[in-house]
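Supplementary notes for students who missed Thursday's class. We covered one full example, reproduced here. Read the sequence, then the structure, then the short commentary at the end.
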Amino acid sequence: MDFSQIIIVLPILLFSVIVHEIAHGWTALRCGDPTARDAGRLTFNPIPHIDPFMTIILPLLLIVSGGPVFGGAKPVPVNPYLFRGGERDNVLVSAAGAAANLLLALAAFLLSLVLIGIYRATGTAAVIKLLELLNIVIFINLLLANFNLLPIPPLDGSHILAYFLRGEAKAAYLRFSRYGFMVLIGVIFLGDLLPIPGGLFSLLFAPTFAVRDILFRIQVGFLV
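Structure (token representation):
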């Protein structure tokens, strides 16, 4: 990825992770927990959301390594004891971030179809540049949703999985959560060393690539 691509990808990534965190905080507020709002995190100002590792270092390392570019923002503070619906609301709050990224991807995709219609009517080359930009928005947000739904603590998917586990299985999973961050770092930086066809990244992010390919085929269908 060259410098011109980096200066396009990183702002899109930053905006997308901010939307992700605002969605968590807004949903928590709707569920009775004002912690994120009171901490000033329900804002599009990027400064309160920046996490040195997840927002800056991780994306840059992935750019250098040639892996899929994704990252995260500083997690919004949440107090689950204030949720009116208890553990059910915790699942809603956890799922809200990925849902927001999927909605962003969907909005960008629908706008891309409008742009394709404009291009077919006018033949304006600049429209293709905008279409390429929207495809980056789609791909990054699909990646973020996929990544955050992985059931590896402390990612959002781990809270969702824990809700459905019962008995000793749940207790064992919660004990495992203390090592989750180390496992996550290992997956990110060492996953492709495992003897898995196509690498661990291709396996974990298979839903992202599958959905992206479907959307791309729809775009091509509108274009021809």
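Commentary. The chain has a mean pLDDT of 89. Residues 31 and 85 are 7 Å apart (CA to CA). If anything here is unclear, bring it to office hours.
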